[in-house]
Amino acid sequence: MTEAxxxxxxVTAAVLVIGDEILSGRTRDSNSHYIAHFLLQIGVETREIRxxxxxxxxxxxxxxxxxxxxxxxxxxxxxxPTHDDITADAVARAFGVEISEDPRAIALLLEQIKxxxxxxxxxRMARIPHGAALVANPISKAPGFWIGNVIVMAGVPAIMQAxxxxxxxxxxxxxxxxxxxxxxxxxxxxxxxxGLANLAKAxxxxxxxxxxxxxxxxxxxxxxxxxxxxxxxxxxxxxxxAMLDGVA
Amino acid sequence: MTEAxxxxxxVTAAVLVIGDEILSGRTRDSNSHYIAHFLLQIGVETREIRxxxxxxxxxxxxxxxxxxxxxxxxxxxxxxPTHDDITADAVARAFGVEISEDPRAIALLLEQIKxxxxxxxxxRMARIPHGAALVANPISKAPGFWIGNVIVMAGVPAIMQAxxxxxxxxxxxxxxxxxxxxxxxxxxxxxxxxGLANLAKAxxxxxxxxxxxxxxxxxxxxxxxxxxxxxxxxxxxxxxxAMLDGVA
Lengths: 248, 248
Fold this sequence. Notes:
Two copies of one chain form a homodimer.
Chain A: H1 3-8, E1 11-18, H2 20-23, H3 31-41, E2 44-52, H4 56-69, E3 72-76, H5 87-95, E4 99-101, H6 103-109, H7 120-123, E5 127-129, E6 133-135, E7 144-147, E8 150-153, H8 157-167, E9 178-185, H9 189-202, E10 207-211, E11 214-215, E12 218-227, H10 230-247
Parallel strand pairs in A: 1-2, 1-3, 3-8
Antiparallel strand pairs in A: 4-5, 6-7, 7-8, 9-12, 10-12, 11-12
């Protein structure tokens, strides 16, 4: 592969958040934001996030839609010992494989739990779809797993983050996406939208977005440019800055 | 409709968040959480959240999947004046209707913008799919809109929240979902998972979830019960409390 071809390599991902507690507005999902930000640093682009309830049919349908479309699917939630933890079974069904208690997972649980406390509910955490590799959980031992292009992680943020650290070195890495952020304080979007549209057309390999935000009743907008080619990105950014100076 | 039938009425919704900035991990989406929490108070259950990029095909596909499945779809983002604001066009395409500058929307923009400043980019904010009703934006005037069962709102949180206030009185309201939260501090999920599973089976009309969280290296779990029948909910909650007392 040539250097130029390497630069274009694109690796995509989706995040599937599983849990009624997010949909009820009780819990604020912080995992999808963390994962998207983490993946961007290693050149993996998150292209979709979905949140679905603890309903097996819904999880299976989302898994199959997402794993067909993206290079990786990262799931969070639903791998604990309680009756509403059904992610592992849903993943096995999506892949059409058997699921059973995995001796490797039982061994890990026994590092944390006394043999006499390893009840039926806790053994549920050792149910792993056949053919899956385990993902280490240094915090509470109960592992995640990786099957096909689907990586199944815990919902508790600290544990999910540790699991992501475990899988990161094994992921295909894409070309790093570079970005430039340009502040446009005090300028309404409507003042520069025409000029920005022209530059977006002139630099098709640079993705240019305008992000308004409101503080104290005034817009404080940012323009973000993203691309894999640093030279082209710098050139586009210079033109955006010059265009804004002409408008202000 | 009898009182009993009223009590069972279920109204569902999905939230579709549109924007590259969420997927890149740059911006933390707070809108979906706000909407889910808001809707719950008026008896509308959020059953799915999706985040998609500023890509028309992706927006159209998600819109069509979600509007076929849920009573309402609430979108946020992509209705400003810049080239990456393509939500209105995507919605028109999803519904197979024309889109053009709406005189009602132009009149609203002119409340905020001087006629000589109403350039081509700003006029884009008045492009509304045919047949849509406008949603008021008391903050910056550029309206959202409502077509079929899809409600299109701004991405800036303060504006989105004002738009939600505008549409709320016009939404079909479901039976309010009641909830009881029971703390189980210090107890690991594995200690009560078996008992909880039995109670979940005994109360099929009550949704029972266990939500672990980690603070200072210790689990502080909560059990949440949800249901539309207050008496049954109270009965289930009493049994959960008794079960936890037996385990602790």
